[in-house]
């Protein structure tokens, strides 16, 4: 695509030169040698149009796929764009190809069939609480599910911020259980059973290639790690202190200021957003070190196109990494979705303009958001966004390849 755009621009320059020459001397005929340039111009125009490079529709376009813009009443099933979707946060696609959405405001998990557009609730009854373990997830009470993932066995895992737990829905039986947290806020339990441990307002989860579960225990300024086979929990990173994180520092003994969201690249790297720290970091699981990617630590919205480390971020929440190392993130307080470009280490805005609003759907640059929280990049390069205060899930088609 880049080649043809360059060719087209070159041909335009050539045609402009020929046209100018004809204007300068109407008695001079275009020499036969120039016919080739004209033919190349015509060919470039055909390819420009055929590939969509010259069409206005070539600009990135955002559309709503879940939610009618309201937060109530809760509908257990129905067309995805015709149901209330109360404060969508974390989201992902499952082994079945469907989209799964955490609805924080209605305390449920919703499944959306991306082929038929139909949706149904698969966990929660729409009432805040903590009950139902050992029974069907559709009869359980949840309390603000924030983030959602699937393990290698197709089991659904999600974190409940206000219950201070991580729960699991069995892929075969639909039965719900708790895998981490005792249901009360605090900090305890390292080295023991995860279900007896105290967490404090956990916000995000992810799994690595070995199936280990990582939890952003944001209220404790730590990342906790659970071995799902043994059921044991430990502190993976963070000291509990609200202090800055030095670039290149070892995980051990280094503070994390508000670890909010994580994603795994499928190999050996975790990507981390620090909410209070207003920055993005990469965690190398081989060397056990932290590398600073973006953000100065101060809150703001600036720096697009420049060095990512000098850009101002505004309470980043939700991250999604692509195969080439680009990191998409919800820059919540600036009401945008931005991306860290690994190739040149810059930051760019991909949706929104920094002003709170509600769309409209269409050109990504003019589609305003209202405190987006979740982002997810699916296998086809579609970027799903939980546009939380607009009670919608929006989608943007990108050129990115997601992680394996």
Describe this structure in words.
With 404 residues, the chain is mainly beta. Helices cover 10% and strands 34% of the residues. It is built from two helices and 26 strands. The strands form six sheets. A five-stranded antiparallel beta sheet has the order 23-1-26-25-24, with no helix packed on it. It has a five-stranded antiparallel beta sheet with strand order 2-6-5-4-3, with no helix packed on it. A four-stranded antiparallel beta sheet has the order 7-8-9-10, with no helix packed on it. The protein is globular and about 50 Å long. It starts with a helix and ends in a 7-residue tail after the last strand. The model is unreliable at 1-57 (pLDDT under 50).
List the helices and strands and how they pair.
Blueprint (H helix, E strand, L loop, with lengths): L1 H23 L10 H17 L9 E6 L10 E3 L8 E6 L5 E5 L4 E5 L5 E6 L21 E6 L5 E5 L4 E5 L6 E5 L23 E4 L5 E5 L4 E6 L4 E6 L21 E6 L4 E6 L4 E6 L4 E6 L21 E6 L5 E5 L4 E6 L4 E6 L10 E2 L11 E3 L4 E6 L4 E6 L7
Antiparallel strand pairs: 1-23, 1-26, 2-6, 3-4, 4-5, 5-6, 7-8, 8-9, 9-10, 11-12, 12-13, 13-14, 15-16, 16-17, 17-18, 19-20, 20-21, 21-22, 24-25, 25-26
Helix pairs in contact: 1-2
